[in-house]
Design a protein that fits this description.
mainly beta; 15 strands
Length: about 325
């Protein structure tokens, strides 16, 4: 993001996954975890204006991050999990190359949460599966007393999957800081040989419950102007989708993705950029150098050339290159 002064950097990160299991007379008990090691940004971030300061939280990265950590009880056709878990809303089959997951489709980076914290029930019988979760509604500890419910039902086979999902939540935050976070959607996957074709789509409700000064936002600030207020206690609505095609060989991974997001037209006098339809294309590739080592590259292209933060033209381009090692 060139307007921020933090437009290009080298970096390192790591992840650790664990799973411990014990078979008992009443089922299988497991403890699972996924933990990230992240390199933070240097503290000398340019914050010369109120608008820049409102985006400082976007550059905050914890050294140690709990991505998943849960206790599960599995018996017969059902499983119950408690803890921080992968959100049961939808299914994303696109490979991700960073702990930050910035290389995902728009509806995944801006709307659908990757993780939820609470209780999760999963059941599968033959080809049918069902998920229900009672969770905070945000990825970490809650900031108000309300909780969210998430449902998903679908068909699961090796070569084909289809599901519909819904999330209902009173909102994230409290009082004038409360934000909507509701959506309903579908996910589908078809696998043929080394190819996987997948897609997701959502109807999305977002925005503030009340009018709120954008420069007063001190938590993560959306760069697409989604944190606006339409009317008091009336959410902003939008819908979006993406289609992803993935190829996997013994040595190569190639992934092509395209998606759009259509926000509700607000005709906002101060932030007309909200109404711009987002087009995001993603190209990724990785090459195996050894059984434990890959090199990769990702290119993300969006529509730009409109005035955005700090009065600068939006440049819709992001790239990443790197190397991974697995042990």
């Amino acid at each position: 993001m060139e307007w921020s002064g933090d437009e290009e950097t080298f970096g390192v990160e790591g992840s650790l996954s664990i799973k411990l299991a014990k078979q008992t007379g009443n089922g299988l008990v497991q403890v699972g975890g996924e933990f990230f090691l992240n390199q933070p940004f240097d503290g000398n971030i340019y914050e010369g204006t109120d608008e820049r300061r409102s985006y400082l939280a976007n550059f905050k990265r914890d050294y140690f991050e709990i991505s998943q950590f849960y206790l599960s009880w599995k018996k017969d056709f059902w499983e119950l999990r408690a803890g921080k878990i992968q959100s049961p809303f939808g299914r994303c089959y696109q490979p991700l190359l960073s702990n930050a997951k910035f290389d995902a489709p728009f509806i995944r980076t801006e709307a659908i949460l990757w993780r939820e914290t609470g209780f999760h029930y999963h059941a599968r019988s033959h080809i049918f599966e069902f998920d229900a979760a009672f969770v905070n509604g945000c990825e970490d500890l809650d900031t108000n007393s309300s909780k969210a419910v998430v449902f998903r039902g679908g068909i699961a086979m090796e070569m084909f999957r289809l599901g519909i999902s819904a999330k209902f939540h009173d909102g994230i935050g409290s009082e004038e800081q409360k934000e909507y976070k509701n959506h309903a959607g579908f996910d589908v996957m078809v696998r043929f040989g080394r190819w996987t074709l997948s897609a997701e789509g959502i109807y999305d409700e977002y925005g503030f419950y009340h009018e709120f000064n954008q420069d007063s936002i001190f938590w993560q600030h959306d760069i697409y102007y989604r944190q606006l207020n339409y009317k008091t206690h009336v959410p902003i609505a939008g819908y979006g989708y993406y289609v992803d095609l993935n190829y996997q060989s013994d040595d190569w991974m190639i992934d092509l993705c395209y998606g759009q997001y259509f926000p509700q037209e607000l005709n906002h006098l101060e932030y007309p950029q909200h109404d711009i339809v987002n087009h995001r294309g993603i190209v990724k590739a990785s090459r195996s150098l050894a059984s434990f080592c890959d090199i990769y590259g990702a290119l993300i292209v969006e529509n730009g050339d409109y005035t955005a933060q700090e009065g600068r033209a939006r440049i819709g381009l992001c790239y990443a290159v790197g190397m991974t090692a697995r042990f």
